[in-house]
Amino acid sequence: xxxxxxxxxxxxxxxxxxxxxxxxxxxxxxxxxxxxxxxxxxxxxxxxxxxxxxxxxxxxxxxxxxxxxxxxxxxxxxxxxxxxxxxxxxxxxxxxxxxxxxxxxxxxxxxxxxxxxxxxxxxxxxxxxxxxxxxxxxxxxxxxxxxxxxxxxxxxxxxxxxxxxxxxxxxxxxxxxxxxxxxxxxxxxxxxxxxxxxxxxxxxxxxxxxxxxxxxxxxxxxxxxxxxxxxxxxxxxxxxxxxxxxxxxxxxxxxxxxxxxxxxxxxxxxxxxxxxxxxxxxxxxxxxxxxxxxxxxxxxxxxxxxxxxxxxxxxxxxxxxxxxxxxxxxxxxxxxxxxxxxxxxxxxxxxxxxxxxxxxxxxxxxxxxxxx
Length: 372
Ligand SMILES: *Cc1c(COP(=O)(O)O)cnc(C)c1O
Prior knowledge:
The structure is a single chain. The longest helix has 19 residues, at about 245-260. This protein is of the alpha/beta class. It has helices spanning about 10-25, 35-45, 55-65, 85-90, 135-145, 200-205, 230-240, 245-260, 295-305, 320-325, 335-345, 355-370, and strands at about 50-55, 75-80, 95-100, 120-125, 150-155, 160-165, 165, 175-180, 190-195, 270, 275-280, 285-290, 310, 345. The protein folds into two domains: about 10-100 and about 110-240, 3-Layer(aba) Sandwich (Aspartate Aminotransferase, domain 2); about 245-370, Aspartate Aminotransferase, domain 1, CATH 3.90.1150. Helix 1 packs antiparallel against helix 7, helix 3 packs parallel to helix 4 (about 85-90) and helix 3 (about 55-65) packs across helix 6 (about 200-205). It contains twelve helices and 14 strands. It binds pyridoxal-5'-phosphate. Pyridoxal-5'-phosphate binds near residues 154 and 180.
């Protein structure tokens, strides 16, 4: 057996749309019906008024912070346990990232630690809904309102995940998504910034296309970027949107199967779904505790021998050499993030994973443990 950690699943509709974009020559990021259709359907799916499609999740995050005018001297509070893109967006703009340790249940930002990190320079909080489970947003929004801060969600792993019945990404000011090949829905490469704020959306839409002048096209008032999603990519996104609910349902079914088969394995901490949450299980993630008998790294190596692909958790931003070289986070301690970074892995999580494959993975885990 060979079971990769992830394989994308694309349908006929996606193919037909790409063919249309191709055959009509609408292949760039400035022409074609799929760009605005994708922006509108995705934003409205998330409960936001406006969507601005970009080339990646990273560029969506960068664009979002730029559109809100984040820059040098500003501080942005974010979870240390994340894809580096969240932190890079802050650094690209010359602002200062301030990272918060994770909590051990959902592996998200520990909301109880946010307030102590706020200073007079803090401008925004960026919660990251890690591996598909939402952050506990109400207390976070309360802190943000008390200190007059923006909340910009990094929902790159959590399309369709819900907090108290509302979809993530539009729970306060804005949200950012990725449509990389392994995300909940994909355009190959791509991203989107969503917001309720018309002014910010218009500004972001202009910034993403080099901030061309409104009256005199080649006279620029703002520092723009070329972060335009092409119509070819948006064509895939429009096709994927037709299936998003069934994709999420399949993700949840794969997770439920894993949890049923792994629940009695000693020393594994399985992913949770808090009573207020709908987890979309972007990846089926778990922790390998000491009681399991072998380390996370050894388990990953042994699973590889069985043809099973896995991936380890993110290493916290506070532990990244690139940021230490810049003088950031040098003395910062995030013990929970460090612990889960060492113990966490995710199992194969493709949509088309069969019941037999899930059972094969779980059998491999129990037999590796039994051999100790
Ligand atoms: C994937 C991801 C990103 C970056 O998205 P890209 O499309 O790869 O640039 C940002 N944040 C999180 C949490 C992610 O998982």
